Amino acid sequence: MNKTFIAVCSGLAFGLSAASAQAADGKALAQELGCSACHAVQEGLVGPSWQAVAKRYNGDPEKILERIKKNVNEGGSGNWSDTTGGVPMPPQPQAQDKPKKQKTLADWVAGLAE
Ligand code: HEC
To answer: Span 22-110: which CATH code?
Structure first.
């Protein structure tokens, strides 16, 4: 296999994956920021699913970003007792002061509202 062939192939793969980059980004970020231990896309784990969060805030990315920031900085409790049984979310220091990542995550979550 020559180098040109490999370069063309990886170029193609990059082009294809760019379309789903945003989706991949959001999911990867949730993982990277340590949210995935308690939040999944569709199922409630310890915390509400991302989809449930998206729906509650009508897919509004600004509102969702606000809730992300608040919960990451201060933690949260009492808003999702019906789905969590009253378990609180502890503050997440590893995800604080990362406005760009928080925004990407919020945009991705917002897109999950149906
Ligand atoms: C240890 C488990 C845990 C981790 C880790 C966690 N969460 Fe949560 N999260 C929860 C629980 C439990 C709730 C529901 C709290 C409540 O009832 O108000 C919640 C609620 C939320 C909400 C909804 C807030 C609202 O007011 O509606 C958002 C947004 C959220 N989490 C974002 C995040 C993000 C972003 C991360 C990663 C940086 C994260 N969570 C990590 C457990 C967790």
So the answer is: 1.10.760.10
